[in-house]
Specification:
The protein is built from 9 helices and 10 strands. The chain has about 240 residues and is α/β, with parallel strands linked by helices. Helix content is about 30%, strand content about 20%. It has a 10-stranded mixed sheet. Strand 9 and strand 10 form a beta hairpin. The protein is globular. Helix 5 crosses helix 6 and helix 6 runs antiparallel to helix 7.
Length: about 240
Amino acid sequence: MDHHFVGIPGLTDVPRVAVVIDVMRAFTVAAWAFSRGVERIVLASTESEALALKESRPGWLALKDGAPAAGFDAVNSPGLLRSCDFAGRTLVQKTTAGTVGALAVANAPLVLCASFVVAGPTARFLRNKDSGPVTFVVTGDGGKADEDLACAEYIGQCMAGDEVEAAPYLHRARTSRAAADLAGGLRSGYHPDDVDLCLEIDRFSFAMVARQEESLTVLRPVAVPDIPPPARGSG
């Protein structure tokens, strides 16, 4: 299937189906947030917008890249987020690359956000939808981030329905510049387990679909059942 891989600067038209990839760390963090009880994630274009949304809606939380800051309840780190209890809450997320990419294609008919932790469910969701060619938005490093490109290519291969060996794709991500920067403590708001948590293949059983809700771009988890292998002798 002829999928298209593009960085945020290369987006010129609204795609029919977009999968926005941010492995380290926005959409790994989003998946962890859902696993910790978040009901929905609102994607913000700026930190000031994130804080304004939080302040105008009682009970909402806000998350950003980098070091902790006044008004924000969490930072963009799966290791720091995994012990939180966000049951029933709405989380406003603003990051450097992932949320920017998602908002850039927010008007597409179908938008999913993904990373390795939801790669399999994302591929199954798209396969069940018979979605056709997908525009993968590789958010990191202007579209050149190897961890994001590896994840996008892995999902694209899985969409064909064949068994795909994840190890080579995970190796590319683990040896990427982003992984080295994280492991070296070059990014603030970091936990030592972040790289490993970003490379847990199919940790969660849902895909993450972004839709427009009352002028906001809202990310929600969608359960995707595992597809059992065909019975022996069938077909």
